[in-house]
Specification:
The complex is a heterodimer of chains A (700) and B (533). By secondary structure, chain A is mainly alpha-helical. Chain A has 26 helices and 2 strands. Chain A is elongated and about 150 Å long. Chain B has a domain of 195 residues. With 533 residues, chain B is mainly alpha-helical. In chain B, helix 3 packs parallel to helix 15. The radius of gyration of chain B is 22 Å and the shape is globular. Chain B is built from 21 helices and 4 strands. In chain B, the strands form 2 sheets. A two-stranded antiparallel ribbon of chain B has the order 1-2. The interface between A and B is large, with 51 and 59 residues.
């Protein structure tokens, strides 16, 4: 039953795509209502799935896709497609459908009148389909398939306004940068397949537990699969595509480049978490940390409202990845969910502002909007507080869990790893600062552009309803009834920590000795409901113990850094105690470094892209001059030598023939004299001959 | 045993020689009746395609073929030439031996399909259409015959038959440098044929057919080492002569694929050839090379194949990376696609070299998909060239809004070429990679080859951007969207590409048993430890 419903949820958006791409132009309002209605239905169904899936339930359906029969030296080659509904996918279903429905609804006004309106809605549909595929799959190959499809739709939507150069470059960049990560992802999948002969998560985990994939290959597989996440979730060093992706329509930024697609990388790591060795997890943690820190420093100086939000997204994704890396599994996934709601709210809010300001995106030209855009302002503020980690918000709960996780990890592993919580707290502080900077510059103070400001009015209902819904969801009550402790909320119970399946030797010390496994490979689709007590008990590992101890210090610290960040923002932009420009002038090198995004783009463009283009020219030259040169050279040599032999043939071989001819002719000339044609002469010859023969024979 | 006869003649002969019949009809038609000529040719190729479908319907997936005659289907086996031996010459027996198995069946289908598409595309030819269509049909026979022949001599005859019409089709109906391109193509391929001929004769004189007692060209008999005369040139295993023979055969086939460094005839031939001929060239002709390797090289010299397996994988890798990099540097749209075609044949070679079920299935499936996808890409080039009479990528821009329907099909073709999941190219590439990766010695080569995925995306998207996005130059404001005829050639290809991307089993099931048999046969007739396989 749940499987059928989930298939319905999966394929309805595809249906929306097919209808809209082929017949959209003929439908009233180009079919936007159809796409929106379908997504709202999907959302309802997704809630139904979530409510009927217990924390330890696993509903699985497998369909054979490719069957190459019994391969010699390998065994049966069966490649399956499968649907898996468990706690992770049930939650993600709701998240994706919710944000997608919000973006659909929001776009009915935001995109109204666009020349390619039906195509836009069709793309939204196929995006949602692909994203839901990632969520629902039970195996790596299918994950990769939908992963790439999501990449395609992202490409189409970033480049939606392909008439302009910005979207062209941004969409191409996004796809290619993602592909680089995907090559790693695919290589990781190949490693897993070669050793475990399966793509299915549960079978892979069982095989790893049975010792079929260990050592360096296991770590390599983990890191390479994570490469997919580096691309899609815009982690350092492949984060450069996401800020550029803001060239797409703003609801798309909210849906794809803030809430869902970019979270797919986090989801991937969550799914494959049990197979990550300690080395792989450390790698993941540091990548997440570096990303979170770098992008937070960049977000501080950006002036485009969407760019600030984009770098903030990169930074928050870094937090999630880092959380998973340090083993705070629940916290990482929790932050994915809370972040999806408030970040989508922020982006849609930004969309509302841009709509009101007639496509003005520079916050230096805004200001004072709170009087004119009441709803947008309040919802934006609510989401900002959640992102900054102000108490009573969902973001406070999830970010706090992550920070506690980093502290616990540092405490357990010690040494250099203390850098993780230090930089993480610093980044959290910067987050609060740049978000409130954004709020103050956009909504407070005096309007900088009087002319545009005069025309601003609050956006219509289809745009404000999604904002209200998403901002309300940023309250803590939806995740835990205790505003300061997420651990006792339903979410933490619903998504308990999972056990690793890697060999003892490749675990962190604190993971050792816990071999009971929650990831049950053989468990068939059980239609039982309710919570599994074993799953809850599992929480009491050394790590959860440490997290528990770190909880209050972490909360105190996080409140402190968030408070400091907000206070600084007030001081700079509200009370004007200091001038931001003066400070920027004082730390000019740092400021420009941040403003220019650490020069990543310049490096990639100048070194890698240029280098590649030069390389291709070199290959072209080589192909034309050397490889083809040899061919043409051979032809030339053949031709020359044939003309040589031709000459030889003419002068020597033929000459010889002619010589013979000449000799014959010479004698012919002589004999011609003899052949007179007169019978008397011939008779004389005959007579002469007879006399000659007579003398010859007589002597014998 | 499966047999299918129409009017007493086997279906494979029908499929192969129907185009010759068509050619005769076309030649008898009066010159002025251009329409009749076109529709006759199309009717014949359609009929041939229908017969291919009938063949497919009656094809039994569970039979293996490869080295056992019992596993072949629709067998037609007659003595063709039988010269009794006298004095110092032996009896010469050459058989008319045709049959299909899982290796050739996808190729037969592909040839039938591309034949129809190419004929539709040829409707725009307006220079002596009669001669053109006659040659096109003859070409079709040559290709089809190559895929169904199991007698090496017959195989070679068809292989050579194909050369002649191709030479004239490029040389007469081609672009400005058509003579150069045609001669280059002809001589290059002939050069390769010489190698094949030598190996064929060497095999012949080393063999002895158990039933007739004469030497034999029968490929199935030749695959059995017991049929090689003891002490003859090619008897034994891993001897220098056999390795040399394999290498010679490899060069002959590699030129056709084409494998670096024997590839330079291809861009020239493509650039000069009319669209339909490019479609055939990329769609079917190149596969004769890889098919020849699988059928002949693998079957006849299994141990040499393993011995050179690593080298083969390296060739595959070079094709992928080298082809992609060269493609990126091109400004001529058609040349770009030609190089990308070289790169994509690299996946076939890489998958083949692995000698695993996944790898070889991927390779054969990639041959099929390359046939449909690259055909689509060349048609796409043709569409814009017919309108603009230039192929310089930089001269275009903003075509997406000017020709939206064309753009939609371009998106499918380009992304299929990039190996996007949901489109057929992905599955074959993925299988080829999976197969190659599972073989430890070539694992690093496989990883390097995966870079091709990024490079392909880079040059394809760059082309897309330069030609279709941005603003339309003033001079192209008169361009029109697809005509009905262009729909008829592009849409079927797109449908196949999407269908097989979602549901690849029809083609994969067709070949699975045969591929397993091939892997089993090659790995059993040699010790795979030669190269640490």
């Amino acid at each position: 039953m749940l499987i059928s419903i989930s298939l319905l949820i999966l394929f309805l958006p595809l249906l929306s795509f097919l209808i809209l791409i082929f017949f959209g132009k003929k439908l009233p309002r180009q079919g936007d209502w159809l796409g929106t209605a379908i997504l709202i239905i999907c959302l309802g169904l997704a809630f139904y799935v979530l409510l009927n899936t217990g924390a330890s339930d696993k509903f699985n359906a497998i369909y054979n896709w490719i069957d190459l029969k019994d391969a010699p030296g390998f065994g049966p080659v069966k490649i399956n497609l499968g649907i898996l509904i468990d706690n992770l996918s049930a939650i993600m279903l709701v998240v994706v459908c919710l944000i997608s429905a919000a973006a659909h609804l929001f776009s009915t006004k935001y995109m109204e009148g666009d020349a390619k309106y039906n195509r836009y809605y069709a793309y939204l549909g196929i995006f949602t389909f692909s994203m839901l595929g990632i969520v629902l799959t039970d195996n790596l190959l299918m994950m990769y398939i939908f992963w790439e499809l999501v990449g395609l739709t992202s490409y189409l939507l970033i480049g939606f306004w392909y008439e302009n150069p910005g979207p062209q470059y941004a969409s191409k960049k996004a796809f290619i940068v993602n592909r680089i990560g995907d090559v790693g992802f695919f290589t990781g999948i190949m490693i897993v397949y070669v050793f475990t002969k399966s793509f299915t998560f549960s079978e892979i985990f069982a095989a790893i537990e049975a010792g079929q994939l260990t050592g360096g290959w296991l770590t390599a597989a983990g890191i390479l699969i994570f490469c997919g996440a580096i691309g899609k979730s815009a982690q350092f060093p492949l984060h450069v595509w996401l800020p550029d992706a803001m060239e797409g329509p703003t609801p798309v930024s909210a849906l794809i480049h803030a809430a869902t697609m970019v979270a797919a990388g986090v989801y991937l790591v969550t799914r494959t978490f049990p197979m990550m060795s300690a080395s792989a997890l450390t790698f993941i943690a540091y990548i997440g940390l570096i990303t979170a820190f770098i992008s937070a420093t960049i977000a501080i100086t950006q002036n485009d409202i969407k760019k600030v939000l984009a770098y903030s997204t990169v930074s928050q994704l870094g937090f999630m990845i880092m959380a998973l890396g340090v083993g705070a599994y629940t916290a990482g996934f929790f932050h994915l969910v809370t972040h999806a709601a408030f970040k989508a709210c922020l982006f849609l809010g930004a969309g509302s502002v841009i709509y009101g300001m007639h496509h003005e995106q520079d916050i230096r030209n805004m200001g004072g909007l709170k009087k004119k855009m009441r709803i947008t302002y309040l919802t934006f503020l609510m989401a900002t507080m959640a992102l900054s980690g102000v108490p009573l918000t969902s973001g406070f709960l999830s970010k706090d869990s992550i920070l506690a996780g980093t502290m616990a990890f540092a405490g357990l592993t010690g040494g250099f790893n203390y850098i993780i919580p230090i930089l993480a707290f610093l980044s959290a502080g910067m987050t609060a600062f740049y978000m409130f900077r954004l709020v103050f510059l956009t909504f407070h103070g005096e309007p900088k552009n009087k002319e545009k400001f005069d025309h601003v009015k609050e956006s219509p209902l289809p745009m404000t309803i999604p904002l209200i819904v998403l901002s309300v969801l940023s309250f803590f009550v939806f995740f835990s009834y205790n505003p300061i402790d997420a651990n006792i909320g339903w979410f933490a119970k619903y998504v308990p920590a999972v056990q690793t399946v890697v060999p003892e030797a490749q675990r962190f010390d604190f993971q050792k000795g816990t071999t009971e496994h929650i990831v049950n490979a053989e468990s068939p689709a059980s239609e039982t409901h309710g919570e599994n007590p074993a799953a809850v008990e599992e929480n009491h590992s050394a790590f959860t113990e440490a997290v528990h101890h770190a909880h209050y210090p972490a909360m105190g610290l996080s409140l402190f850094v968030a408070g400091m960040g907000i206070l600084l923002a007030f001081a700079f932009y509200k009370w004007k105690k200091f001038s931001a420009d003066a400070v920027a002038e004082k730390i000019k090198p740092l400021y420009t470094f941040s403003l220019n995004k650490w020069y990543f783009d310049e490096f990639y463009e100048g070194v890698i892209v240029k280098g590649l283009l030069m390389l291709t020219q070199a290959f072209r030259w080589f192909d034309n001059k050397v490889v083809d040169g040899v061919v043409n050279g051979a032809a030339y040599v053949t031709e020359r030598s044939s003309s040589g032999t031709g000459k030889f043939d003419n002068s020597f071989v033929d000459g010889l023939v002619n010589l013979i001819g000449s000799v014959v002719m010479f004698f012919g000339l002589i004999f011609r004299k003899i052949q007179t044609g007169r019978i008397q002469t011939y008779l004389a010859y005959v007579l002469f001959g007879i006399i000659l023969f007579y003398f010859i024979f007589r002597t014998m | 045993m499966h047999e299918l006869k129409i009017l007493g003649v086997g279906i494979l002969s029908w499929i192969t020689f129907l185009p010759v019949l068509g050619m005769i009809i076309v030649l008898m038609l009066p010159k002025e009746k251009e329409k009749t000529v076109k529709w006759t040719a199309l009717g014949i190729t359609l009929l041939q395609f229908v017969l291919c479908i009938v063949l497919w319907m009656n094809f039994d997936n569970t039979l293996a073929g490869i080295n056992k005659i019992e596993g072949f289907q629709f067998i037609e086996k007659f003595t063709w030439i039988d010269v009794p031996g006298f004095a110092w010459t032996n009896r010469v027996v050459i058989e008319y031996f045709m049959a299909v198995d899982g290796l050739s069946m996808p190729m037969v289908l592909l040839t039938g399909f591309i034949g129809v598409i190419a004929t539709i595309s040829s409707f725009s030819i307006n220079k002596s259409i009669k001669g053109y269509m006659a040659l096109l049909l003859l070409l079709n026979t040559g290709m089809m015959g190559t895929f169904v022949s199991l007698d090496f001599f017959l195989f070679f005859v068809f292989w050579e038959i194909m050369l002649l019409p191709m030479y004239f089709l490029i040389g007469v109906w081609g672009g400005p440098r058509r003579i150069y391109a045609a001669i280059k193509f002809f001589l290059y391929t002939l050069f390769g044929s010489a190698f094949i001929l030598i190996v064929m004769l060497a095999l012949y004189f080393s063999s002895k057919d158990p039933t007739t007692g004469a030497h034999t060209f029968n490929v199935i008999s030749l695959m059995d080492p017991a049929n090689l005369l003891p002490g003859s040139l090619l008897a034994g295993s891993l001897t220098t002569a056999r390795l040399l023979a394999y290498a010679a055969l490899f060069i002959g086939f590699a030129i056709k694929v084409p494998i670096f460094p024997f590839h330079t005839w291809l861009p020239d031939a493509h650039v000069e050839a009319p669209t339909a001929i490019s479609v055939i060239l990329a769609g079917v002709l190149l596969k004769m090379g890889t098919y020849g390797m699988l059928r002949m090289s693998y079957g006849l010299f299994p141990e040499a194949m393993v011995y050179f397996g690593y080298a083969l994988a390296v060739f595959g890798m070079i094709n992928i990376i080298y082809g992609s990099l060269c493609a990126m540097a091109q400004k001529d749209f058609k040349k770009l696609i030609a190089y990308s075609s070289i790169a994509h044949m690299g996946y076939v070679v890489l998958g083949m070299s692995s000698l695993t079920t996944q790898g070889i299935s991927g390779a054969i499936f990639q041959m099929f998909n390359h046939g449909t996808i690259t055909a689509m890409l060349f048609l796409i080039v043709g569409v814009i060239y017919d309108r603009a009479h230039t192929r310089n990528v930089d001269e275009f821009g903003g075509l997406a809004n000017k020709m939206p329907k064309y753009f939609g099909l371009v998106i499918i073709g380009f992304f299929a070429s990039m190996g996007l999941p949901g489109l057929s190219g992905f599955i074959s590439e993925a299988l080829a990679f999976l197969g190659a990766f599972s073989v430890e010695p070539i694992r690093v080569i496989t990883i390097i080859s995966t870079l091709g995925i990024v490079l392909t995306a880079a040059y394809m998207l760059w082309t897309l951007q330069r030609m279709f996005f941005g603003t339309l130059p003033e001079k192209w404001s008169g361009l029109t969207d697809l005509t009905a005829r262009e729909y008829f050639m592009l849409v079927p290809l797109a449908v196949v590409v999407i269908f097989l991307g979602v549901y690849p089993s029809p083609i994969l099931n067709m070949m699975a048993t045969s591929v397993n048999q091939l892997v089993d046969f090659v790995s059993k007739s040699t010790s795979l430890t030669i190269m640490g396989w």
